Description:
The protein folds into 3 domains: 6-62; 78-200, CATH 3.30.1330; 230-331, Arc Repressor Mutant, subunit A. The chain contains 17 helices and 7 strands. It has helices at residues 8-20, 25-31, 37-40, 48-62, 78-86, 92-104, 136-153, 175-178, 207-216, 219-223, 231-239, 249-255, 260-269, 274-290, 297-303, 309-320, 324-331, and strands at residues 6-7, 45-46, 111-117, 120-126, 159-163, 182-184, 191-195. Strands 3-4-7-5-6 form a 5-stranded mixed β-sheet. The chain has a two-stranded antiparallel sheet with strand order 1-2. The longest helix is centred in the middle third of the chain and has 18 residues, at 136-153. The model has no long low-confidence stretch (mean pLDDT 90). This is Transcriptional regulator, AraC family.
Amino acid sequence: MRERTIASHFVRAALRGAERQGLACEAILRQAGIQSAVLIEPRARIAPEQFARLMQLLWEALDDEYLGFGRQPSKRGTFAMMGHAIIHCRSLEKALSRGAMFYGLFPDAPGICLQREGDWARLSVDDSTLWDPDHFLLESLLVIWHRLGSWLIGQRIRLEEATFAYPEPAHAAEYELLFPCNRRFAAGQTSLLFHARYLAMPLLQDERTLKQFLQHSPADLLARPDGGDSLISQIRRLLGRDCRTWPDLEQVAQQLHTSPQTLRRHLREEGTSFQELKDHLRRDLAIYHLGRDELAIQDIAEQLGFSEPSAFHRAFKKWTGLTPGAYRAQEG
């Protein structure tokens, strides 16, 4: 769902390379329509389009698709040129291998490797040449390559597992959006595991569709959340966008062909609850509507199922650290 929002952690992490290069980030945040309060407030969140804009602005200002995290910059246009190098490949395996080979031509580039493991394929990224304290570029590369592969074959590549060669971070709950699969931290390598059957699939894209794709990528790939077919995403889809008509837990369980007890247990295992899912969806819908001027704050409160605006104000401040009015002001 495009109303999924992005945690302020990723804004701070994205700026670290630029700050290291001595770039004045306040002006870039302003241009992206992001209030500097977002950097201070750990609970603050932004809309996906704001994040995509921030990425574009950073790439332009630094002329570096590695955002200041590499030993050498990756000049703007490198990703596009890689796209042209792989677009005529016969299969996904050939395209991913050629893309990895393309980046291997650049000194000090993060290493990208595709390997078969029986029925499985593993795409791994080696970040030993990067200065990347928050693993921001490393995780971005995983997301970009997964979504690029899915786009090439015209269907979502279902991930079996994501592994990370570092301990679980404090914001691990956010990873369900980026890597909707089993996640393992403190692993031997940082990689994505998926079924090898995808590798034989033909590319459904061509030069014409690549041109359209490159107008917004890779920023768009990073900003667009991918809940895939995880339980949480299925529930969000069932809830829909009008909070006043939301089904209750029993109705959702029925639609998922399971019992309420089993659904509660599965959500507990994923570290969440039905109530928390509803709160997160309400929060994301609020941010979505506040970013557009179509509805007054009072109307948004009503649509989100709040009996009065003051209850909405309190809830929004609790969710993001900002009032609805302050959040809307940053968009202007």
